[in-house]
């Protein structure tokens, strides 16, 4: 039997219950919100971005912070500079002397003795060569034994070997002189001595020991960003990058770069083919030639922190949400995130070694 409206008269309590107006309004608002969100995700454009953090570095390795080391062992005799002092290429920085103040004189005397021995050997070889020529003439005339002639030739060869040996010793002496001649360490390029690590002339130093740090000022710079592997397939050289430098006020709106303020533009210069030890990929960003230049020193120095957004393709908001949610596993850890895993792995390696 079909249910009709007049049958409601038999259910007085049910007929007295109605849907509250707030609930009805809430349902309408939810439906409008859902429909509006679907339309928003399907129609509104969104610029895909790969966010990363990094630092400002020098493009040329020679322009990066480098160590000034002792070229020879000895003691510090004199400092020509102070902390934070500007220097030109070739300016002296520090002088190192050997413990023996007469070392150079002794090395030069050793060289002169070797030269004298070479001169004497050459004179003796010339005399021996004359004997060889005379004995050769007598041998061809049958007036000299073959053995005597061969012994004279061997004597000339011995003198030649002795001269070569002394020449090799002179080369070794020259190497010592050249090393001792670089007792004054000079600035490799124009720049600034950042920090002096050495002490006074009572300090002994070894060859290769760090004496000071040196940095080139106003060198060509690039930004080194580290981004997640999820975004690497969409990053390639030439992509635009929005940069926010440390200490520089800025406002960034990811997805709508035209709204951002205080940002600087860059361009992807290179991308590493393998991940760094932290599990992220390194991206090198250079200045965009068609945009305003980056802040110069002292506003942005080498080593300053940078936050960057690599601009990729323009897609719909819904597609970008789908891309991000597809790489959202419930459990994901990079190597080294869990200290217990690291400790467990170290213990297992030790057991295998035993």
Automatic annotation (TrEMBL):
SUPFAM superfamilies: HlyD-like secretion proteins. Residues 104-169 form a coiled coil. One of its GO terms (molecular function) is efflux transmembrane transporter activity. GO terms for cellular component: efflux pump complex. Keywords: Coiled coil, Membrane, Transmembrane, Transmembrane helix. This is HlyD family efflux transporter periplasmic adaptor subunit. The chain crosses the membrane at residues 26-47. Residues 112-177 form the Multidrug resistance protein MdtA-like alpha-helical hairpin domain. Gene3D superfamilies: 2.40.50.100, Helix hairpin bin. InterPro entries: MdtA-like_HH. It holds the Pfam family HH_MFP_RND.
């Amino acid at each position: 039997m079909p249910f009709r409206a007049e049958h409601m008269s038999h259910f007085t309590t049910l007929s007295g219950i109605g849907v509250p107006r707030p609930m009805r309004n809430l349902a309408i608002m939810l439906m409008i919100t859902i429909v509006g969100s679907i339309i928003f995700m399907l129609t509104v454009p969104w610029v895909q971005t790969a966010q990363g953090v990094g630092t400002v570095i020098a493009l040329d390795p020679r322009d990066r912070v480098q160590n000034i080391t002792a070229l020879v062992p000895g003691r510090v005799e004199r400092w020509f500079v102070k902390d934070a002092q500007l220097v030109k290429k070739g300016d002296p920085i520090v002088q190192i002397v050997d413990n023996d103040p007469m070392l150079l004189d002794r090395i030069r005397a050793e060289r002169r003795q070797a030269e004298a021995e070479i001169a004497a050997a050459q004179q003796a070889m010339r005399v021996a060569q004359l004997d060889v020529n005379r004995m050769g003439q007598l041998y061809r005339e049958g007036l000299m034994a073959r053995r005597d002639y061969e012994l004279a030739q061997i004597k000339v060869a011995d003198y030649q070997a002795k001269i070569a040996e002394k020449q090799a010793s002179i080369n070794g002496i020259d190497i010592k002189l050249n090393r001792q001649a670089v007792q004054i360490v000079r600035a490799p390029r124009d720049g600034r001595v950042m920090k002096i690590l050495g002490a006074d002339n009572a300090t002994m130093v070894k060859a290769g020991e760090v004496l000071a740090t040196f940095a080139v000022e106003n060198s060509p710079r690039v930004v080194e960003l580290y981004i997640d592997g999820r975004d690497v397939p969409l990053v390639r050289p030439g992509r635009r990058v929005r940069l926010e430098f440390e200490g520089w006020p800025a406002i960034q709106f990811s997805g709508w770069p035209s709204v951002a303020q205080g940002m600087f533009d860059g361009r992807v210069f290179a991308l590493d083919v393998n991940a760094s030890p932290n599990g992220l990929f390194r991206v090198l960003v250079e200045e965009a030639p068609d945009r305003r230049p980056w802040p110069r020193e002292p506003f942005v120095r080498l080593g300053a922190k940078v936050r960057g957004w690599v601009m990729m393709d323009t897609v719909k908001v819904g597609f970008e949400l789908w891309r991000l949610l597809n790489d959202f596993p419930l459990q994901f850890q990079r190597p080294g995130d869990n200290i217990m895993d690291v400790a467990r792995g170290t213990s297992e390696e030790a057991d295998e070694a035993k």
